[in-house]
Amino acid sequence: MATAASPLGTVPPVLPATDVVIQTVDLWKIYQMGTEQVAALRGVSIEIKRNEYVAIMGPSGSGKSTLMNLIGCLDSPTKGQYWLNHQQVSELDDDALAHIRNHEIGFVFQTFNLLARATALHNVELPLIYAGVESAQRSARALEALKKVDLVDRKDHRPNELSGGQRQRVAIARALINNPSILLADEPTGNLDSTTSNEIMGLMDRLWSQGNTVVLVTHEPDIAEYAHRVIFIRDGQVARDEPTARGRKARV
Amino acid sequence: MATSLGENLTLAYDTVRSHKLRSALTILGVFVGTVTLMAIGSILTGMNKTVVDQLESFGTNTVFVYKFAPGIHIGRLTREERLRKPLSDADIAAVRSECGACTAISAQVMAAGNFGPPGANSANARSKSHEVDGLTFSGTEPNFPEATNQAVAEGRYFTEAENDHRENVIVVGHSVSDALFPTQDPIGQTFTISGTTFRLIGVFALRKSAGASTQDLSARIPYHTFEKLFPASQEHSIEALARPGMLTIAQDQIRVALRRSRRDKWNAPDSFGMATAESIIGQFHDITGQVALVIVAIASIGMLIGGVGVMNIMLVSVTERTREIGIRKAIGARRADITQQFLAEAVFLTGIGGILGIIGGWLISELIKFAIPSLPSSVPLWAVGMGFGISVAIGVFFGLFPAMKAAKLDPVDALRYE
Ligand SMILES: Nc1ncnc2c1ncn2[C@@H]1O[C@H](COP(=O)(O)OP(=O)(O)OP(=O)(O)O)[C@@H](O)[C@H]1O
Ligand SMILES: [Mg+2]
Q1: How many domains does chain A have?
Q2: Once rounded to an integer, what is the mean pLDDT over residues B122-145?
Q3: For residue A111, what is the domain's CATH number?
Q4: Side-chain half-sphere of A84: how many Cα atoms within 13 Å?
Q5: Which of residues A8 and B50 earns the better pLDDT score?
Q6: Which end of chain B is more exposed for a tag (fewer CB within 10 A), N or C?
Q7: Where in chain B are the domains?
Q8: Whose CA is nearest to atom 25 of ligand 1?
Q9: In this predicted complex, what is the ipTM?
Q10: What is the mean pLDDT of residues B105-116?
Q11: Which residue ranges have their beta carbon within 6 Å of ligand 1?
Q12: What residues flank ion ligand 2 with Cβ within 5 A?
């Protein structure tokens, strides 16, 4: 399965190391805007290992969200390969991608993206519905997940009855419900004040320490410091890829 | 399928509840369509029941022979039909001699133009103080009650002697005696029809059929008396009771006898009409069936228009909930899940429209039954099934396109939608 003759050109055989969970090879994303083409990503090749804690930084419009969406299987690349858990994702169809989003990835958004009309508990349950888990078990597991983010007492509240930090915690509980190995967060603290941000980052930290692979996009250097490695993106390309102070410390 | 029907119906219920007015307006077309179907269906059923009851009360083993085929005629008479001779005494005699499978044969005669479907008569009877209209007035033979499955409850029917002597005796239906002699014993009383005085000697038993039966409004006098009083009468008929299980044979024998006596050419159709209760009921069923078909078609057009409304609202709903769809897809909903969700919503809407329509139609049917007692309307099962079935089908058909549109949304685009 490794030597794939891509329609976009011959690609060298890719034999990912066993502990690499995310590998992109010359990833391109080109948006067609009328007659104009906007290249949001121009050949991104990165590798992220199991249980790494990675921050992606870069100026606005550099392509961070685009990259995250590709990693999270929300979008497909125009060109290049993406291997997730040794599976060539760029070849999968819609429903297969949906399955991956459901089972292998937890996605946290800057704008929370909770269902406005559903309670916190129901929002957390949602991925289990699409995983085909039966109702009684669903509620039990959702309650468990809410416990992890310390929001059991708010389980019957709707998003508009929750604070920003609480909403993001609900979103994190939802991302965790199916025990995904990878947690992706696109500016999870972008809409939160610094105290709440630190609270959320503490939670992310805990998830990382429990064995999850965590990738987050941020603008704020002090948030990036939670991670062990920072990938800088500029104009759709990897500009720098280096360990953070914390990462250097961990390596020693 | 990952999501269950119950899940989707709960979602649909939530959506409908949060958009009450919009939902109500959307299902109006389906509702009206279903009500129409129910109402017309129940009226047809009521009419059917009335007709069947009346016809069956004549006895299912009786063959009726007329100059024209009984039932409802469409279009003009053919030349042959216009030139037909009335059933003659010779015809009656032929039937009498050749129908071995018949036990009782009675000839009947009515005034010209006075024979026809129930209620087409307008003979008028008056006693000293009372009057009654709309009588079925005819001359019959003594075995008429036997031939047409009628019983004389009070008094008696007339005899051969009374027929032969052309006596002015009369036997009437229950409604007639009640109207003319509400307080006295009617037997032996006299009253007049068209200026002739008759002596009442018997009253037919009350018919059980729903509504006012034409038989309860009948007035029968001896055949020869009628001929004497109304020599211009041309409307003859023959009622023949077949032996049990020999209805078909009796019909064949009568046909052979009449074709011969009326000199029908071997390749010409019968120059007379023959019917049994069953054949008339069958004919009536055919007609009501066709009417029902037209109604279903009309109601369906109404429903189709309603369906376009459903599609429109579903498209609006999909657009409004683009972000929701994006969220659901982002956390793992597949195309089929989204399709099912929106399809369930559309079907839920039209299904409610259908159920409300069934209830509305039922209420109308009850109202009709209450307002018009002679029309025992009742909602037929086929109308319920069809009303609900079409409603659901409309939801599926018109919900499919919006649902598939929703399912095809790109998650990233949908999440970015403002
Ligand atoms: N759907 C789209 N159609 C056209 N162009 C797009 C689309 N999505 C993104 N882009 C373009 O791609 C580039 C990268 O966008 P992206 O959202 O990845 O930036 P970003 O790094 O996440 O920025 P920010 O920090 O502001 O969130 C931008 O120039 C943007 O205009
Ligand atoms: Mg972004």
Answers
A1: 1
A2: 86
A3: 3.40.50.300
A4: 23
A5: B50
A6: C
A7: 5-53+283-416, 124-232
A8: A60
A9: 0.91
A10: 71
A11: A 31, 33, 38, 40, 58, 60-66
A12: A 65
